[in-house]
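Weekly modeling sync, notes
Attendees: S.R. (lead), two postdocs, one rotation student

Agenda item 3: backlog of single-chain predictions. S.R. asked that every request posted to the team notebook include the full sequence so nobody has to chase files. The rotation student volunteered to paste the first one in as an example of the format we agreed on. Action items at the bottom.

Example entry:
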Amino acid sequence: TTKRKSGRSDDPFDGEGGKSAKKSKKEKKEKKTREKRSDDESEDKSNHKSPAASSGKTETPPTNTKKRAFRLRLKGIAPNTDKAQVAQFLSVSESCVRNVFHGEAIVMVDTEEAFQRCVEKDDEKLNGRFVKVTDETNGARSNLGRNFLTPGNNGENNAEVKRKTTTNEREGRDWTCEKCGGENFARRETCYKCAAGKYGEQRETPPVMKTSASINTAVVKKQNNAGDRMVAQGSEQEGYEVFVKYLPKNVDESDIADFFKRCGELKEEVNLLRDQTTGSSKGAGFLTFRNAESREKALAMDGERFLDRTVSVTVAKKSPFGTRGTTQALGTHTPAMLRETIDSLGIANDPNGIYIDGTFGRGGHTRGILNALGKNGQLHAFDLDPEAITVGRALEKEDSRFHMHHSPFGSMFKVMREKDSKVKVSGVFLDLGISSPQFDDKSRGFRPEQDGPLDLRFDVTSGVSAYDFLLKVSRNDLRDIIFKYGETNDKLSAQRIADAIVLARDTNALPKTTKAFATLVANAKGAEYQAMHPAKMTFQALRIHLNEEFDEFRRGMEGAMKLLKENGKLGVLTWKHSECAILIEYFRKVEKVRTNAPIFEWLKTNHEKSVTKLLEKDDDDDDAWAAEMDDCKRPADIEMRTNSRSRSAILHVLRKKSSAARMVEAEKAAYKKLKWENKK
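Predicted structure, as returned to the notebook:
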């Protein structure tokens, strides 16, 4: 191999030549660094020359020529904002952005020019959010705003503060109080034990900040938003609840109960928020204690260490409509479309009227309606579930405006008229299907994923369970039930599922538990294209049949419309297509005449006397009424993000019109004139 004068080899595989190349690069880099350092020192000396030095007199050079580090905190950053976006927003390098967490960012810059550029971004938008820039260079936090003071302008004050921030503080981690040693989570400004400031001193807010804070507080109060209307939860009946967040991700309900056991006895099991799809913890949850003293002890644990996290403990709040955070089970902390329901029923226009909640459940919508009622308003609720009745009876004792009925909502007309033969109600609400507490209770057998008895009844004190029903039902009837109520056009699947159940029954192998039964159904059905348990629709079909849900729905709508007064409203929350179809079918039968309907226009043009007779109704005739329908409403995006179970909900509203003709009556009159045969 031919060697060059430099001693480097042309052969790329020559190990000695490779080492020489690396050494040469290293030497060049070091030389470049030395030259740059020399130039910087020369520039610093020339910049610090005094007039005396320029005239030939000697002067002691400045002792400190290092660049200064400035620390800033950005607040109000939009979710999913990364370091690169923050750096671009501030016109600094990405390495200056030390951390982005919980809507905040820590930025370190080493020049006054960069510091001023960052400060000028105060109250500007980043990813659609207005960002606040806070100076934390010397530990004291202050919102700089547009009239900020640069570190160069307040050098005297800065010189007095010699304390350096710790790594944990710079990176936005949990911090330790210098005064008492208490562990505090990152976003706390003062120690939870001794109220000392985050940087050790008992800080007072500067006058300017006090003025700003008072202005901001006034603005918030003026807004009177939902957060302002929320009140602390707590009573002997419902217990005393706290909300805990920043929990370790790997803990379960028993771990949390054990951590808080020194506070006192829990009234309910720990409600740990979990992801509905993965089942993993969301790092937050609710605890309900039996008395207020236990809750106070739990609140005193705010800021304590739980494994590797510092937890936050606060008083649980009620919603603006009077509902608790745990009114419904895991993942559903507020009743679906509660605000839309209250608005659609028109309670604000008639707060002292009589209203009916036909599906009490655990009282989610009921409490919201009660909170919107006036002091003379009345609310009647219906349910079959014994657990729901227990909750309802307790609510009756708390609120004299509320009345609980252990009856199906299909009987509301009979029950209400027995109390008052001339009663007229302002609004009726029906939330169809199964409630979340029932769905999540494995002892009721409603979910194929959970293991419990194969029951499927709303009222476990009456009727027969699903297992007992399957022991007697015929093969053909079972096939028809699965096909009719299972919301499927797959007749073969319905037949195969029925065959499998009958074969298991005939061989004394019919499962008594939900998981085993679900496995039997899944094996019979085979492959499924939908992202759900293969046995889900079979469970639904059996539940609907056993509880007579669709027949009850029809009876409930008819009874509700008869009880409503003029312009009274029936609100129905549906969850599946079959429920919508039944509602629309009923509405078509009672729909008020539409003057723009072609059949009515023909009748009016050619047989005006028939139209006049049709529209003449006796005001005293209780059966001479019709219905109009408002546009359907669906959950808002924000509700579907916070309550995933609401995504299928649709709110329908029917309005009663007294002394009104129906479309079916107009069609009957027109068919008679046209000599059309109206086959049903």
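Discussion: group reviewed the output briefly. The chain has a mean pLDDT of 78.
Action items: rotation student to repeat for the remaining queue; S.R. to check formatting next week.
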